[in-house]
């Protein structure tokens, strides 16, 4: 096992991206990432090597995230931060973009949990299919197929 600094240096960005894919809030993702590494270092003796270090860290991060949700008495994802708009965009354009984003996430919410998680990880966390498969304990092909099918369901929902 690596020392604490190496562990943080090697995995902090990936863990941050993973957490951000759930909470969609930069400050909260940073806090949860820090708490994840704190807990990982405290319990490093419990790591048994049955999974990759990255997967172990993501499991801790997910647990910290759920505890954060429980603290706030809710089990839903945080609202996405509004994307920065340039001054060139009109109020109408901003409204339409916000409505489209809202509709997309309403449709995402209706998908089965595995598909929803794959889409969140891919779209907001920008993880590769290989990484998504590792995080969810599946393979790359499963992640690709799940993403494709989820995308198809979303496109079908938008056209109806």
UniProtKB/TrEMBL annotation:
Residues of the RNA polymerase sigma factor 70 region 4 type domain: 104-154
Keywords: DNA-binding, Sigma factor, Transcription, Transcription regulation
Annotated RNA polymerase sigma-70 region domain residues: 7-74
Top-level taxonomic group: Bacteria
Protein name: ECF RNA polymerase sigma factor SigM
NCBIfam families linked: sigma70-ECF
InterPro entries reported in the protein's UniProt record: RNA_pol_sigma-70-like (IPR039425), RNA_pol_sigma-70_dom (IPR014284), RNA_pol_sigma70_r2 (IPR007627), RNA_pol_sigma70_r4_t2 (IPR013249), RNA_pol_sigma_r2 (IPR013325), RNA_pol_sigma_r3/r4-like (IPR013324), WH-like_DNA-bd_sf (IPR036388)
Name of the coding gene: sigM_2
Organism field: Paenibacillus pseudetheri
Annotated family: Belongs to the sigma-70 factor family. ECF subfamily.
Keyword Cytoplasm included in the entry's annotation: no
């Amino acid at each position: 096992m690596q020392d604490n600094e190496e562990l943080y240096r090697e995995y902090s960005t990936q863990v941050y991206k993973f957490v951000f894919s759930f909470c969609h809030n930069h400050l909260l993702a940073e806090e949860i990432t820090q708490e994840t590494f704190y807990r990982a270092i405290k319990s490093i003796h419990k790591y048994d090597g049955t999974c990759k270090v990255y997967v172990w860290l993501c499991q801790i991060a997910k647990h910290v995230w759920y505890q954060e949700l429980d603290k706030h008495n809710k089990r839903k994802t945080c609202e996405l931060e509004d994307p920065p708009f340039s001054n060139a965009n009109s109020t109408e354009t901003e409204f339409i973009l916000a409505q489209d984003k809202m509709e997309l996430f309403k449709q995402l919410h209706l998908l089965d949990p595995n598909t929803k998680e794959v889409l969140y990880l891919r779209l907001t966390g920008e993880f590769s299919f290989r990484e998504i498969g590792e995080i969810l304990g599946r393979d790359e092909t499963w992640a690709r197929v799940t993403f494709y099918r989820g995308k198809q369901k979303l496109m079908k929902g938008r056209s109806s």
